[in-house]
Amino acid sequence: MFPKEDLKTYLKAHVLVFFVHNIFKYSLHQVIWPLAAGINTMSKNLKPIHLDYSGAGYSPSALVKRSIYSASKQADCYPYEGYDMLHEKIAEYCKTESRNIYATNGGDEAIELLVTIFGRKMLVPIPTYNEYEYIGKSRNSEIRYKNCLRDDNSYSLNYTKADLKWATLVWICNPNNPTGSIIPRRDILWVLDNTDAIVAVDEAYYEFAGNSVVDLIKKYKNLVVLRTFSKGFGLAGLRLGYMVSDSSRISSLKAAAQEFNVNRIARAAGIAALSSLGYYKKRIASMKRLRDEFEQFALGLGIYAFKSNGGFAFLKFKSIAELEKIYVGLKNKGIFVFKASDSEFTGLKGPYMRIAIGNRGDLSVLKKELKSLMQKQKLSDGKLR
Ligand code: PMP
After folding, report:
1. Is residue 186 over pLDDT 90?
2. Where does residue 57 fall: left (phi above 0), alpha (psi -120 to 50 degrees), or beta otherwise?
3. How confident is the model at residue 381 (pLDDT cuts 50, 70, 90)?
4. Which architecture characterizes domain 49-56+278-384 according to CATH?
């Protein structure tokens, strides 16, 4: 039928096709798919949990979501109108007048303005939030760091009358980030009574702590309180903050800022958030319960937990070596937290860790891993003895 040579070529070609086909089939089923599935499950299991930057762990209220959507329809227009509405709403929330309010592009813009205008000589309590120092350095501020964290784990202001005379800008973070400590009102009053410098009280975590000195702006013209919608209201991604102060101080700060510093969407979200206080109060209350439960859990594992008044927990391990083991162990499981040496904080040295509370699900994954890492740590401690 076939000439002999043709038959050979025909058979060779078929055998080749058979082999290539089956090798491909085999590798597809035995190698490529399992590998892809493995990578897929691995990436699912390793979905990172971010408890470093403190997100709220809950979504915006329905009204906030709707307002964001409708403001987005005017995204093509400069936000020249509408600041007054936001200022009025914030003033109502702070029980003051709108001429005492200035909304900013996040609390960080408020810090930037204060440092740029008044920060020639700054007093910075340590450890604290790093932005005062960070902006200060870029503006060539002279900075005096005053240690406020004591060996007994208490945190209180440590400014002397001489410091207060020297400074042009005095920082107080209340509650303090990262220790979560409350600065008593009498200590803030003592500072205000002993300085002509601008006293900036950072109340970023006000919604968690409930302590405020906003009412003192009438008496003390040098007091500026700053706040943010990033924490209790969970709008960090939109960048909205504000300052509360004497009206002439507000005018001078406003004059130094960009004309359109707060965008339409952030403004609409801020107004809506302040009209959804009931929703946020519930969320904040449950986050505080999670935080308190977590602190008890950490104490039970033999880790010292500070009594935090912010949206985070602050832990102290027995040693830097222990901190590092736990930090790396968590990181290897895709759980990210802050440790003392991170640039988020000024003047924090030692075996400290800050954990944002986030939501119940993320926190329970963290608790499980923390427990197992601490058990391993105890076993290896035992072996060393
Ligand atoms: N102050 C403190 C103490 C903070 O922790 C933060 C945010 N990490 C801010 C101010 C600034 O907040 P934002 O710029 O997100 O409004």
Report:
1. yes
2. left
3. confident
4. Alpha-Beta Complex (3.90)
pLDDT score at 57: 82
The pTM of the full predicted model, rounded to 2 decimals, is: 0.87
Q: Which two tokens stand for residue 219?
A: 């008496």
- Res 380: pLDDT: 76
Residue 229 Cα: closest atom of ligand 1: 16
Residues facing residue 199 across a β-bridge = 170, 223
Separation between Cα atoms, residue 306 and residue 289, nearest integer Å: 15
CATH class for the region spanning 62-275? alpha beta
Q: Assess whether the C-beta atom of 177 lies below 6 angstroms from ligand 1.
A: yes
Task: Report the C-alpha gap between 5 and 257 in whole angstroms.
Answer: 88
Q: Which of 200, 148, 212, 166 is nearest to 345 (CA)?
A: 148
The full set of domain ranges for the chain reads 49-56+278-384, 62-275
Q: Is the pLDDT assigned to residue 44 strictly greater than 50? A: no
How far does residue 134's CA lie from ligand 1's centre (Å)? 13
- C-alpha span between 127 and 175 (Å, rounded): 12
Angle at which helix 107-118 crosses helix 247-255, to 10 degrees, equals: 90
pLDDT at 46: 61
Q: Is ligand 1 within 6 A of the CB of residue 104?
A: no
